[in-house]
């Protein structure tokens, strides 16, 4: 049998939507900015599977110089615990933020969250604050902010879950009340505030939009699930084309893969016809649960080069991003209104 050759380039970035900036994102961002003067720390969450792509330049711009802790969430979905690959990956990720305290967390690991508690507890600059220390947890939608706060509370003060979490973005819509995560004898306790996930007004690079959608930062209905699985398949094949052997031989063809997947998992419509969209959503869910390989969607070496090359590294300001989003909407409506 001929040897399987994965695709080295993903062929169709064409008609992918590039924005998902909702009313509560805009309102949340503006409220966060107004609250900054009463905040000691920003805890910025990024997704471990897309450590560079899940940085939101809008948040970086808005939150400016406030002291920052960077937390890469969902570590369990991006690497194998204690492996040398994990150590190397995390060394590279750390190098992106040499001036911030950087943590990697998995909701399954108590030790990961405890490291953050230790850091906050020992922070000399907030030890003697009479009113206590306030940290605001920010990041893209669905990145795991509320989950992180629940864990910090549980491991810090032994209390049960305080915040609602869920598999789709937008569970948190407003800035929450302070949640105590550390008690200090001095009375300078540490409180953490949850915030609504904020997306960008416009994502200049269509591939980044696919990565963010796969990580769950945009609602599943925004991009066709079959396109998402096609893009995921491209990545899976580059890492381990055996990862889906339960359902299919290695393949670069998304529809036949989804047909066999639907047959083998019983996702059939009328007359036993495979339900392709439903199969695509289930396939993505399996990957999000860590069942079809654990790897990063970002190429860290390429990202490192890009970040060090000023000609390739011009993040859009909020105004530019909003303008780009308006232009893209106008282009779309012009195309739709053209006579046949
Ligand atoms: N496997 C895994 N899943 C996680 C982890 N952290 C969070 N999740 C899951 O990710 C989903 C989103 O988590 P949330 O805590 O609701 O995310 P959020 O950032 O508060 O979301 P918004 O309400 O959109 O702002 C939930 O299904 C969590 O169970 C993690 O470390 N590992």
From TrEMBL:
It is a peripheral membrane protein. Gene3D superfamilies: 1.10.1580.10, P-loop containing nucleotide triphosphate hydrolases (3.40.50.300). InterPro entries: GTP-bd (IPR006073), GTP-bd_ortho_bundle_sf (IPR023179), GTPase_MTG1 (IPR016478), P-loop_NTPase (IPR027417). The keyword Nucleotide-binding applies. Pfam families: MMR_HSR1. GTP binds at residues 142-147, 197. One of its GO terms (cellular component) is mitochondrial inner membrane. Coiled coil: none annotated. Mitochondrial GTPase involved in assembly of the large ribosomal subunit. Plays a role in expression of the mitochondrial translational machinery. This is Mitochondrial GTPase 1. The lineage of its organism: Eukaryota, Fungi, Dikarya, Ascomycota, Pezizomycotina.
